[in-house]
Specification:
The complex is a heterodimer of chains A (423) and B (310). Chain A has helices at 72-81, 100-113, 136-141, 157-169, 181-184, 193-198, 205-222, 234-245, 256-260, 282-294, 309-312, 329-338, 345-351, 354-359, and strands at residues 2-6, 9-12, 15-18, 20-24, 27-32, 41-44, 49-52, 54-59, 84-89, 117-122, 146-148, 174-176, 189-190, 202-203, 226-228, 250-254, 299-300, 375-385, 404-414, 417-421. In chain A, the strands form 4 sheets. Chain A has an 8-stranded parallel beta sheet with strand order 8-9-10-11-12-15-16-17. Chain A has a 6-stranded mixed beta sheet with strand order 3-2-7-18-19-20, with helices on one face. Chain A has a 4-stranded mixed beta sheet with strand order 5-4-1-6, with no helix packed on it. Chain A is built from 14 helices and 20 strands. By secondary structure, chain A is of the alpha/beta class. In chain A, helix 4 (157-169) packs across helix 7 and helix 7 (205-222) runs parallel beside helix 8 (234-245). In chain A, 30% of the residues lie in helices and 23% in strands. Chain B has 310 residues and is α/β, with parallel strands linked by helices. Chain B folds into 2 domains: 13-137 and 291-305, Aspartate/ornithine carbamoyltransferase (Rossmann fold); 139-288, Rossmann fold (3-Layer(aba) Sandwich), CATH 3.40.50. In chain B, helix 3 packs across helix 4 (116-124). The model of chain B has no long low-confidence stretch (mean pLDDT 94). Classes of the chains: A alpha/beta (423), B alpha/beta (310). Chain A binds chain B through residues 191-193, 195-202, 268-269, 310, 313-318, and chain B through 91-93, 111-116, 118-119, 133-137, 171, 174, 197-200, 202-203.
């Protein structure tokens, strides 16, 4: 089975180059200005760009337990439509993915559909209750790539220290969702001018920052690898900067929404602007963009968090936190940040591909000879409208609903097989 | 003058211009005269149906809305959360769909969640008057407060209005800051720092004081707010005694205000906590008039929104 991609620009060595690409036996077997071999399939990608398949290290697939929101099939289809070929599933399923059987369930289902590589993140503590260490070593031998209680945060510092020491013992990266529950309280959006104006209770940046400060200190003491999920404030970034300057193995990610939106988006009480951490102010947003450019932020992750319409369609303070992210991620960032030159195209692509791969030691993330043909072909001159009808996720909870953004994913390939094709 | 009120929502006062607010006050003045008659009823909204949708309980505000509707001869249906399907887990969306099917022309809603009046409008496509949504807004209360000051002082321009108490949890303050600001009043808010939201100056253009004497200095209008006991268990202040010592409206503290300063309170009062009884009952107190004016303001809004015939 041979496939040739013609007339496209290929993302090689951080730049777009006019080359052709041959896929043979699931792998990239040739990159050359002109490929004349006979192929089973020739894809004319005129005007489009070929990027490495995107890698998302933070997603919620809701399977098992909440399959009315999403399941592994719909979730991976949605990922492929967004150009993703590898995604990491967070363990806040029902039951919680805190044991080897649950890990294997997700792996089996993902393999059955084979639409995206699904890596499993195991729970840090049993049932993510923040009380007892999970069987993370067993789960690691079953293939988990990290542990996390994402959605929850271990409040007890002694237990967190134990978890970090135990994870360090088996060299498992620990991903934290930094949130001090007492400081966050019943907060709905970020503390600040908008919260003051519209009377929703606020989640202060401090709720995130005190846990990041604590966990950097604990991880240093434990000798553990620490990855900070969805960073959102300038002060948090300062803490990460200090940790990195001291040479600690600390990494962090940012979501597309924290790079593009601020709490001003909450003024209309749209529950699709409600997520954790909350959208912050413009100074925090700009700090995130700058930190992404400087490399202080290691990668972009979607925090794809599907919720059904009936859950989001209610009073703001009664709706669940979270928005979907696979399908909008590239377009939102390309349209809002690359076109305005706030970030470069190569920063965007690298932070969605090789950089997240590096953090969790995942394969892929680069277009090179001999590598698995995980690719996405995107036309930067076309656009995409995100409507309830064409979103492939089961859930439609996005603040970009019915908006049209620049760029359009034309094809996605996993191991040379088409997993998404624009119709 | 040709103002368009027909079919409009009253989510908060920022949707209304200074001139429109003054027009509402004039309309309320006419309504107030009806309330002083022996037969307190006009036929203007005959055949219209108004629903008071009170998801958060409030007897006083609901009665005020219902009296207003009755006096305009509208039919009134009353929906109370504690005896309704919402208690059984029905969503607000389904509740509104159900009510709407019965032919409601105007909703008056009270809800603990900010933004819920917008939802009721979205689901019903009917005009909605916000009767208080969480900490967000309480525009009819602000309008009746403004009306009360306007009636007594003639004009709010450059009046110093001081509002004292739990600013953090108060929707009354937020709507008053917007409405009074539009009419040119200079508002100062005062309370302990733990009960003061951040960024008040930049969001509302008001002044923030933590010291009561400074806040009251030369005030033309002084408004106390209800201090709720549960704020103590939330760790926001230590005791009612200590609160009262620093923030109670008393003869001693009010001597910093102008001698003829109006004394206001949105109710219900905790006598002896945020206001001493002799101040609440003093000759400059307009607390009872506020309640009377509330009916007139609500009548005016219903009349204007439903296009009543004058």
């Amino acid at each position: 089975m041979k496939t040739i991609i013609k007339n496209a620009k290929i993302y090689l060595d951080n730049a777009l180059q006019a080359q052709e690409l041959l896929i043979e036996n699931k792998r990239i077997s040739k990159i050359a200005p002109q490929i004349t071999e006979k192929a089973d399939t020739v894809i004319d990608a005129a005007g489009a760009c070929v990027f490495p398949g995107f890698i998302d290290i933070h997603a919620h697939l809701r399977d098992p337990g909440h399959t009315y929101k999403e399941d592994i099939q719909s979730g991976t289809k949605s990922a492929a439509k967004g150009g993703f070929t590898s995604i990491c599933a967070m363990p806040n399923t029902n039951p919680v993915t805190d044991n080897i059987a649950s890990v294997e369930y997700i792996q089996l289902r993902a393999k059955e559909f084979s639409i995206a590589r699904v890596y499993v993140i195991g729970a840090l503590t049993k049932q993510s209750k923040g009380e007892e260490i999970s069987e993370m070593a067993t789960m690691k031998s079953g293939g988990i790539v990290a542990v996390s209680d994402d959605g929850y945060c271990v409040q007890n510092a002694r237990i967190m220290l134990s978890c970090l020491r135990y994870a360090a013992n088996f060299d498992i990266p620990v991903i934290i969702h930094p949130e001090d529950y007492a400081l966050a309280g019943r907060g709905q959006i970020s503390s600040g001018k908008v919260a003051t104006r519209i009377g929703l209770s606020g989640i202060p940046g401090l709720a995130e920052e005190v846990i990041i400060a604590r966990d950097i200190m604990l991880a240093e003491s434990a000798g553990a690898r620490l990855h900070i999920a969805h960073i959102s404030t300038a002060r948090s970034l300062e803490l990460v900067r200090q940790a990195k300057e001291r040479g600690l193995p600390v990494t962090c990610e940012v979501t597309p929404h924290h790079l593009v939106l601020t709490d001003e988006a909450c003024l209309g009480f749209d529950t699709n602007t409600k997520m954790k951490p909350p959208l912050r102010n413009e100074a925090d947003r700009l700090a995130c963009v700058q930190a992404l450019n400087e490399g202080l932020i290691d990668c972009i992750a979607t925090d794809h968090a599907p919720h059904a319409d009936f859950e989001k369609e209610r009073e703001f303070d009664q709706a669940p936190f979270g928005i979907i992210g696979f399908e909008t991620a590239f377009a939102v960032l390309y349209d809002n940040l690359v076109k305005s030159k706030a970030i470069s195209l190569s920063t965007l692509v690298n932070k969605l591909s090789c950089e997240p791969a590096r953090i969790l030691d995942l394969p892929g993330g680069e277009i090179k000879l001999g590598a698995k043909a995980d690719l996405t072909i995107i036309d930067l001159n076309q656009s995409t409208t995100f409507s309830k009808e064409n979103i492939l996720s089961k859930s439609k909870n996005t603040p970009w609903l019915d908006q049209t953004l620049a760029s359009r994913v034309k094809y996605t390939f996993k191991s040379g097989m088409i997993t998404y094709q624009d119709s | 003058m040709n103002y368009q009120f027909l079919g409009r929502n009253v989510f908060d006062l920022d949707d209304y211009s200074r001139e429109e607010i003054l027009y509402i006050l004039e309309a309320a003045k006419g309504m107030k005269s009806i309330n002083l008659r022996e037969y307190k009823k006009i036929p203007t909204l005959r055949g219209k149906t108004i629903c008071t949708l009170f998801v958060e309980n409030s007897t006083r505000t609901r009665m005020s809305f219902e009296l207003a509707a009755n006096r305009l001869s509208a039919d009134v249906v009353s929906f109370q959360a504690n005896v309704s399907a919402l208690q059984k887990g029905e969503s607000l969306q389904d509740t509104v769909y159900t009510l709407n099917a019965m032919g409601i022309d105007l909703y008056c809603i009270r809800h603990s969640s900010p933004g819920s009046p917008q939802l009721v409008h979205k689901y019903s496509q009917k005009p909605v008057i916000n009767g208080g949504d969480g900490r967000h807004a309480h525009p009819t209360q602000a309008l009746l407060d403004i009306y009360t000051i306007w009636e007594k002082k003639g004009d709010l321009k450059d009046l110093k209005v001081t509002i004292v108490g739990d600013i953090l949890h108060s929707r009354v303050v937020r709507s008053n800051l917007i409405g009074m600001g539009k009419l040119g009043a200079k508002v100062t808010v005062c309370g302990p720092k733990t009960l003061m939201p951040g960024n008040m100056e930049s969001v509302y253009g008001c002044k923030v004081e933590y010291d009561l004497a400074r806040a009251l200095s030369d005030a033309d209008v002084v408004m106390g707010l209800r201090m709720q006991l549960e704020r103590m268990s939330e760790g926001l202040f230590p005791s009612l005694e200590e609160y009262s010592k620093h923030y109670v409206l008393s003869g001693r503290t009010l001597k910093y205000a102008k001698p003829d300063a109006l004394i206001m309170h949105p109710g219900p009062m905790n006598r002896g906590v945020e206001i001493l009884p002799e101040i609440a009952d003093s000759k400059h107190s307009v607390i009872v008039e506020q309640v009377a004016n509330g009916v007139a303001i609500r009548m005016a809004l219903m009349f204007l929104i439903l296009g009543g015939k004058a």
